[in-house]
Automatic annotation (TrEMBL):
PROSITE patterns: GATASE_TYPE_1, IGPS. Residues 272-490 form the Indole-3-glycerol phosphate synthase domain. The gene is TrpC. Residues 53-237 form the Glutamine amidotransferase domain. It catalyses: 1-(2-carboxyphenylamino)-1-deoxy-D-ribulose 5-phosphate + H(+) = (1S,2R)-1-C-(indol-3-yl)glycerol 3-phosphate + CO2 + H2O; chorismate + L-glutamine = anthranilate + pyruvate + L-glutamate + H(+). This is Multifunctional tryptophan biosynthesis protein. Its EC number is 4.1.1.48, 4.1.3.27. Residues 1-12 have a biased composition (Polar residues). Residues 1-45 are annotated as: Disordered. It comes from Thanatephorus cucumeris (strain AG1-IB / isolate 7/3/14) (Lettuce bottom rot fungus). One of its GO terms (cellular component) is cytosol. Keywords: Amino-acid biosynthesis, Aromatic amino acid biosynthesis, Glutamine amidotransferase, Isomerase, Lyase, Multifunctional enzyme, Tryptophan biosynthesis. GO terms for biological process: L-tryptophan biosynthetic process. Pfam families: GATase (PF00117), IGPS (PF00218). Pathway: Amino-acid biosynthesis; L-tryptophan biosynthesis; L-tryptophan from chorismate: step 4/5; Amino-acid biosynthesis; L-tryptophan biosynthesis; L-tryptophan from chorismate: step 1/5.
Length: 498
């Protein structure tokens, strides 16, 4: 089996496009993204020296970049990020290395890329493109997070430092962007310098190691809408050796050039940030309202006015698979979904269909829900044998909301790791337990999963949608489920309704 690609040959000023076939590499499961064999087929590793090695992070843009490099006269060998191991690096005699763009997050989706960066940096020139930049930042201890804006095929003018790969490139060139993540300025290690930013919003578009020939851009220089992409890539191909001291023509160490001021602003608030801020205001208003003060709620609980609980964990374990059904009128990403939904009627329908848990949105501004919805949903199923557990799905930021949930009929609550500082997460988790409710702790990435496991959560929900940038990765659940012990319950939620 072979995969057709487009290869461009260059001879003088004549350029010819030809179709070639590259052998497809199969894995034990037949999935090209499956983990590699312990020792990749030796046929993948050329015996002769490699001029330019590009590690492909499973992205079609890899081949656009390949085409442009070939048009500039480079001889490029492309290997996917699961076709190499670190043991192969000493046997690879390469002139330079490129880390390609790719989907997902550098922590979970870049394969061998980060290890390749750490091995070859200081030995040969290394260039990262898009995810390649993110891999470099992560490899040196920086943080990748939401850029404050989502760009897909959009252009932005950029400012740069006129050194290294940007030497002799005009200021204000248009850059084509396909990303929602970027390097976080305050976490950049001292060894990395910002080399370019968007002119309008200040998002980091380029970084460079201060001593080693290691450079990266967040945008796509190979895109037809990106200006001066040839010049940038040609500057990279002209580099040699592992340090800028070996490349005085690059002007990276030129003391006569003015320092570059990135002037990167704070990232724009995400929708999750906005909801968090609004819920804090909502809680303060409720606490200040006569009859619903914090003291009032504590009195109601001490009088045992809260309805009886059922075990959330027991309901989930009673059936395989267990179904959690949701009542939701709207969402930030979709707007209106089912504005005329009757919460009580819908809850009964779900229960009779076999739902183990009914999740009720109680956030009013973006999801058009209420505590009354949850109370009516609870009342509608209260007399059923083995009734479903009721989940208050909201943005819990204060113990007050947990008291509300208990009084209005919830059996469990949702705690979102992405929204809560670790100390607050633990405090809210323990407070919920003190009221007899085991929370559903929601995660979206490996670090959040580790936080949930350290917390001791018994029920962990994996949200396939990143709540900062709204990107959906359907592989998130399967990747994170492997991190849990057999005793943990993992709810894989598709994340398509946010």
């Amino acid at each position: 089996m072979s995969t057709p690609i487009s290869k461009v040959t260059s001879a003088g000023s004549h350029r010819e496009r030809i179709d070639v076939s590259v052998p497809a590499v199969s894995t034990p499961t037949g999935d090209p993204r499956s983990p590699p064999l312990p020792n990749p087929p030796r046929s993948l590793l050329p015996d002769s020296p490699i001029e330019t090695l590009m590690i492909d992070n499973f992205d079609s843009f890899t081949w656009n970049l390949y085409q442009q490099l070939c048009m500039l006269g480079a001889k490029v060998t492309v290997l996917r990020n699961n076709e190499l191991t670190a043991n192969d690096f000493p046997n690879l005699h390469i002139r330079n290395l490129i880390i390609s763009p790719g989907p997902g997050h550098p922590n979970t989706d870049s394969g061998i890329s980060n290890e390749a960066i750490r091995y070859f940096a200081g030995r040969v020139p290394v260039l990262g493109v898009c995810m390649g930049l993110e891999c470099i930042v992560e490899s040196y201890g920086g943080t990748i997070e939401y850029a404050g804006e989502i760009m897909h095929g959009k252009t932005s003018p950029i400012r740069h430092d006129n050194r290294g790969c940007f030497k002799d490139v005009p200021q204000g060139i248009q850059s084509t962007r396909y990303h929602s993540l970027s390097a976080h300025r305050t976490t950049l290690p001292p060894c990395l310098a910002i080399t370019a930013t968007t002119a309008e919003s200040g998002v980091i578009m380029g970084i460079r190691h201060r001593e080693l020939t290691l450079e990266a851009v967040q945008y796509h220089p190979e895109s037809i809408m990106s200006e001066e992409g040839d010049a940038l890539l040609r500057n990279f191909l002209d580099l040699q050796g592992g340090t800028w001291a070996e490349n005085p023509v690059s002007k990276v160490l030129d003391p006569t050039l003015h320092p570059f001021s990135p002037d990167v602003p704070h990232r724009a608030p995400t929708i999750l940030d906005k909801i968090y801020a609004q819920r804090l205001k909502d809680v303060e208003l409720a606490k200040a309202t006569p009859g619903t003060t914090k003291e009032d709620l504590q009195t109601f609980l001490s009088m045992q006015l809260a309805p009886p609980l059922v075990s959330f964990v027991a309901r989930l374990k009673a059936r395989t698979p267990a179904l959690m059904a949701e009542i939701k009128r709207a969402s930030p990403s979709k707007g209106a979904i089912a504005m005329h939904t009757n919460a009580a009627q819908q809850a009964l329908t779900y229960a009779l269909a076999g739902a183990s848990v009914i999740s009720v949105l109680t956030e009013p501004a973006w999801f058009k829900g209420s505590l009354l919805d949850m109370r009516l949903a609870r009342e509608a199923v209260a007399t059923l044998t083995d009734r479903p557990a009721i989940l208050r799905k909201d943005f819990i930021v204060d113990e007050y909301q947990i008291c509300e949930a208990r009084l209005w009929g919830a059996d469990t609550i949702l705690l979102i790791v992405a929204m809560l500082p670790p100390d607050r997460l633990r405090a809210l988790y323990l407070f919920s337990l003190s009221l007899g409710m085991e929370p559903l702790v929601e995660v979206n990435n490996a670090e959040e999963m580790r936080t949930a496991l350290r917390l001791g959560a018994k029920v962990i929900g994996v949200n396939n949608r990143n709540l900062h940038d709204f990107n959906v990765d359907m592989g998130t659940t399967s990747r994170l489920a492997d991190m849990c012990a057999e005793s943990d319950v993992v709810l894989g939620r598709r994340g398509l309704g946010w």
